[in-house]
C-alpha cells in the first residue's frame, strides 16, 4: 500500500510524530485504499498542507482515481481545488444544495451570495 501512495516502506515503522503532514496524509489514503473502496470521501484533504504538498497529494488522488477506478467525493471550501480537479460540483449552504452541475458552469454562473463569497478571494475571478 505504501508503494501505491508513493511512500518508502521504511515509513511503516515510524511514529506519527516522525512524519510530515504530507506523509501522514498519504498514510491515511493508503489505509483507506486497503479496503478496496469504490469511493473515497476526502474531507478537506489539503487544509493542513502547504501549497506544494497539497498539489502533490491532489495529484496522487487524481492518479489513484484514474488507475483504480475509484470515485472521489471532495469536501472543501477551497474553490481553487474545485476548479482544478472536479468535473461536477455542488455548493452547499446551511446543509442545502444551492447550486450543482458541471464545475465550470457552476463557477461561471454564481449568483447566490454564499458561493459568490467563496469565489471572490480567487484572483482569476476578480
From TrEMBL:
InterPro entries: ABC_transp_ATP-bind, ABC_transporter-like_ATP-bd, P-loop_NTPase. Signal peptide: none annotated. The keyword ATP-binding applies. GO terms for molecular function: ATP binding; ATP hydrolysis activity. It comes from the Bacteria. Keywords: ATP-binding, Nucleotide-binding, Transport. Residues 5-47 form the ABC transporter domain. Belongs to the ABC transporter superfamily. This is Oligopeptide transport ATP-binding protein OppF.
Amino acid at each position: 500500500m505504501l508503494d501505491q501512495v508513493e511512500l518508502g516502506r521504511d515509513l511503516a515503522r515510524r511514529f506519527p510524530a516522525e512524519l510530515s503532514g504530507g506523509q501522514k496524509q498519504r498514510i491515511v489514503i493508503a489505509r483507506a485504499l486497503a479496503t478496496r473502496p469504490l469511493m473515497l470521501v476526502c474531507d478537506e484533504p489539503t487544509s493542513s498542507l502547504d501549497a506544494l504538498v497539497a498539489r502533490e497529494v491532489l495529484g496522487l488522488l487524481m492518479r489513484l482515481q484514474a488507475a483504480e477506478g475509484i470515485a472521489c467525493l471532495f469536501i472543501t471550501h477551497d474553490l481553487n481545488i474545485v476548479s482544478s480537479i472536479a468535473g461536477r460540483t455542488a455548493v452547499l449552504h446551511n446543509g442545502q444544495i444551492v447550486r450543482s452541475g458541471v464545475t465550470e458552469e457552476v463557477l461561471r454562473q454564481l449568483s447566490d451570495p454564499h458561493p459568490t463569497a467563496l469565489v471572490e478571494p480567487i484572483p482569476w475571478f476578480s
